[in-house]
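Appendix B, Record 12. Input sequence as logged:
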Amino acid sequence: MSALNTARSTAFIRLRQEGRTDEVVRRLVEAIELGLFAEGQQLPSESELALQLGVATVTLREALVTLRQRGLIETRRGRNGGSFVCAPVELPEPLLLRRLQDMSGPDLRDLGDEQIAISGTAARLAAHRSSREQQTRIAQHIESLKQASTRLARHRADARFHIEVAAAAQSLRLTHAEMRLQSEIGELLWMEAAGGSDVTVIEQEHRAILEALVNGDAVLAGALAEAHVSRGIKRLMALRLELLADNELPS
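Logged structural output:
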């Protein structure tokens, strides 16, 4: 199974009882925003999605209404109808800066701690468990990042790299956690103000992680992944402090 299919399956892993509609929305938003479903691609049927998620069809329909209201999908009627993914929209950077500024310092630190734990563990396991085919796909996402010309494309390529590593660890839970974290914080890392236009450094860090995976060096792979995530979080923390300081300056 390819990592893309693994990630999609992870997006539809059966839900807990509480907050089901909101959880369905979150899972589908993650899959769409991270590019696991391409523009114009049809989602599985309502009955199939509901079955995969373990929710009632009425719950799924409520979630799809929210996705339509947010412009993420459109519904087409007729024989070949269904729910189709809309073209992605890149959020304005001022909106992302506001989102970062509104995050508390402890919350941002905790997100970083969680991602360091998830990405480091995934890399260590992938060094033992990844196949040659998975390593090739990881390399393809590094090339996609190198070729990306927009913030959204860079974010998606970066996210897919990390999700692919988690999928190569053969862990649905790690893959799902990585998807959630990439959706929650990944795009912030690619803001111009956060150094998002400098792809070279990130590309080099990705290649170093991949090399450790190929060599089966779990200790090095985990350490490189943790350092990679830590540097990104530190950039965001520094930028957040700058934004707060600028707002405190007298007009």
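The longest helix spans residues 218-248.
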